[in-house]
Amino acid sequence: MDRSVTARVPTRTNRDDRYFNDSHQFMPARGYTHMFQNMLRNPQIHIMLNADYRDVRKEVAARRIVFTGPIDEFFDFRFGKLPYRSLRFDHRTYKEEWRQPVAVVNYPMSEEYTRVTEYKHLTGQQYACTSVTYEYPSADGDPYYPIPRPENAALYKRYEALANATQNVWFAGRLATYKYYNMDQVVGQALATFRRIEALLPKGPSSQQQMTAAE
User: What is the bridge-based pairing of β-strands 145-146 and 84-94?
Assistant: First the structure.
């Protein structure tokens, strides 16, 4: 693994129990579910669940596509598959107010699971019970993380060249750009991608265009 992976998790020499070092860290006022419900309530957004992009791409008319799935899958694995790491989640609720002293505890070697998250530390909820999630690494399952090794980076570069030559398709996110991103970095990348698309659109009231987001 590339050393940049371990650099994502800070090593503490103090009692700061936050996962990140950012000066300002916030949660959506009513949670992420409510935030996405508001975003998707727009009548111009149509959602297709349990639909593989490769199965429906000929049925969906789109002038522009923002693709957030695995980049090798978009190109039908032309150069072979890029390896990804997956996770298995074990959600548990305990009849106790707190289960651990901080929101996230990492277990790099001592347990089968690698991380335990207790959400009440993040949300500020007050309740007699608590819910936690245990994360187990897995080679099988949905792709979550790229595996940064020199041979994988070289394979991705071949797919990136195809992506750069593909008109009206933008690739964004961990899977589509084969890089580790935290949430704030992904949001920043999404906004930057939108600005690049907007800069290419003709100006004026008649320039309304449709974009389709695929994952």
Answer: antiparallel
